[in-house]
Every structure is written in structure tokens, then in C-alpha cells.
């Protein structure tokens, strides 16, 4: 099989001088520097020519699927992405499909127990949630910045990684966070890289989600997410409510 040898752009993490939200590089990324060599990546996909029309429309690209991990009764789903990048819509859908995502959540579905809290606090919350729920999770767009520190306490982790168009996300950062254009672009791209490196490093069942495709085909997105989560499909009435919820502007 043809392969492309590439160099991972580690310099963005090891040399970043930014002190803004989500840009401090955790120890996880320093480990990549030690590789000092290129990575062989297959160029050709065997699935490309046989991909169905429905699959082409799907908002999901599942990765590192593991029947043993997915077949276990107990799972922890972590929804990450970029602020203003579609994670609220995805986390809201996860909740509606039966995943416990926290108590008394705000309209962005971010659990306060996992936002800017010390690792010791999050570990204690995880232990309590593991006792109370077989299936649960949380959403915090920049969680990749701290997940490595709490991984041993996360039971059977599954990742949901949300991607949104760069320009649309930049505009949202400029509007809601008063970001400079250049800083917004750097902030978004760096966080996306951290998320991707986490996926490659952990190699746990992962759903890569396109926010744009999700809102274009909400029924298909619901079906695919329910399948990944191992949850039953919603009935007609609940699907209608989900479709209305996923309409941009409704979930926040």
C-alpha cells in the first residue's frame, strides 16, 4: 500500500508563547518531540470506492473502534472540540439519547465540575459518577488540555471530537470573545491539533463529527450517534424534537 511520510508539526506546542484560553501545552504533547522521526500514513483507503451514498452524507467518521470496549456495559463519553465549534449541539444530542452529561447543566451543556477545576477535584467527581452511572460523560471543548492527567480514573473512555468550519468558528470567536482575527485562527487550529493528537495517542473508540454535516442531515446524524453510543434509536416524536433542537440557534 502506498504511504506518505510526514513530519508532525510539534513546534506549535513546544514553542507556543501564547497564554490565552486553551493554548498552554500539557506534558502529553512533549512526548511527541521524543519521536524525532516521520510517521508512515496510508494514502489509499480501501473503503473509498465502496462508500455508500448514506455514508458520504454521514457526519461521523468512526475511528479506533474496538468491539470489546464498545461491548462493555460501562462507558465514559468525553465530548471535545473548540469553543463555539458545535460541541453544544452534539452534547445536547448525547443527553437526549440517554447519556448522563451532568446535573443542572447550562444551555451549553458544559458540566461545571469539569471546567477549570484542579485534577484532584475532577478525579473525585469521576469516581462518584462511576459509582452512580454505567453510561455517562461530559462536554468541555478544551478538555484535551487536562485529560491526560485524569485518564487512569476514566472508565472505558470513548471520545466524541467535534469539528466546525474554521472561518465560521473564527467569526464566532470574533463576535462572542472579541478575538483578533489572527489570534482566533491560531487558537482554533492549535486546539484542533491537540484534540487530534489526543485521538492518535489514546486510540480509544472515537467519533469524529462534522458539525456542518450534522445539521444538514439531523436524522442520519442521530442514527449514527445512537449507534456509536450504543443507545436505542429515538421514536418519531423524540426525533422531531431532536431535529428542532439541532437547528442552528435553538440549542443555545
What do you see in this structure?
This protein is of the alpha/beta class. It is built from 12 helices and 7 strands. The strands form 2 sheets. The chain has a 5-stranded mixed β-sheet, with helices on both faces. It has a two-stranded antiparallel sheet with strand order 1-2. The longest helix is centred in the last third of the chain and has 22 residues, at 181-202. The radius of gyration is 18 Å and the shape is globular.
Task: From the structure above, extract its key features.
44% helix; Rossmann fold; 5-stranded mixed beta sheet; 12 helices; globular; alpha/beta; 252 residues
Give the biggest beta sheet: 5 strands, mixed
Number of domains: 1
**Percent of residues in helical segments?**
40-55%
The CATH superfamily is P-loop containing nucleotide triphosphate hydrolases
CATH class categorisation: Alpha Beta
Question: How big is the Rg?
Answer: 18 Å
Q: Based on helices, strands and strand pairing, what is the structural class?
A: alpha/beta
How do you describe this structure in short?
α8 packs across α9. The model is unreliable at 1-26 and 34-38 (pLDDT under 50). The chain has a single domain, classed as Rossmann fold.
Write the layout of secondary structure elements.
Blueprint: E1 3-6, H1 11-14, H2 27-33, E2 39-42, H3 53-57, E3 60-63, H4 67-71, E4 75-80, H5 87-96, H6 119-132, E5 135-139, H7 147-150, E6 157-163, H8 166-176, H9 181-202, E7 206-210, H10 211-216, H11 218-229, H12 236-246
Parallel strand pairs: 4-5, 4-6, 6-7
Antiparallel strand pairs: 1-2, 3-7
Amino acid at each position: 500500500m502506498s504511504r506518505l511520510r510526514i513530519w508532525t508539526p510539534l513546534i506549535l506546542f513546544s514553542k507556543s508563547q501564547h497564554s490565552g484560553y486553551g493554548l498552554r501545552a500539557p506534558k502529553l504533547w512533549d512526548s511527541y518531540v521524543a519521536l524525532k522521526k516521520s510517521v508512515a500514513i496510508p494514502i489509499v483507503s480501501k473503503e473509498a470506492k465502496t462508500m455508500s451514498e448514506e455514508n458520504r452524507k454521514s457526519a461521523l467518521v468512526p475511528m479506533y473502534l474496538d468491539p470489546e470496549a464498545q461491548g462493555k456495559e460501562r462507558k465514559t463519553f468525553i465530548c471535545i472540540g473548540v469553543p463555539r465549534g458545535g460541541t453544544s449541539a452534539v452534547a445536547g444530542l448525547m443527553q437526549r439519547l440517554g447519556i448522563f452529561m451532568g446535573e443542572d447543566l447550562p444551555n451549553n451543556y458544559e458540566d461545571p465540575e469539569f471546567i477549570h477545576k484542579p485534577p484532584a477535584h475532577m478525579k473525585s467527581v469521576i469516581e462518584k459518577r462511576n459509582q452512580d452511572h454505567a453510561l455517562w460523560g461530559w462536554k468541555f471543548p478544551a478538555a484535551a488540555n487536562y485529560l491526560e492527567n485524569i485518564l487512569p480514573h476514566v472508565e472505558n473512555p470513548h471520545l466524541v471530537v467535534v469539528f466546525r468550519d474554521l472561518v465560521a468558528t473564527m467569526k464566532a470567536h470574533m463576535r462572542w470573545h472579541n478575538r483578533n482575527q489572527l489570534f482566533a485562527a491560531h487558537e482554533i487550529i492549535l486546539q484542533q491539533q491537540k484534540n487530534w493528537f489526543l485521538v492518535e495517542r489514546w486510540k480509544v473508540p472515537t467519533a469524529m463529527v462534522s458539525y456542518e454535516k450534522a445539521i444538514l442531515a439531523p436524522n442520519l446524524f442521530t442514527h449514527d450517534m445512537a449507534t456509536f453510543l450504543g443507545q436505542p434509536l429515538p421514536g418519531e416524536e423524540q426525533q422531531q424534537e431532536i431535529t428542532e433542537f439541532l437547528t442552528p440557534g435553538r440549542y443555545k
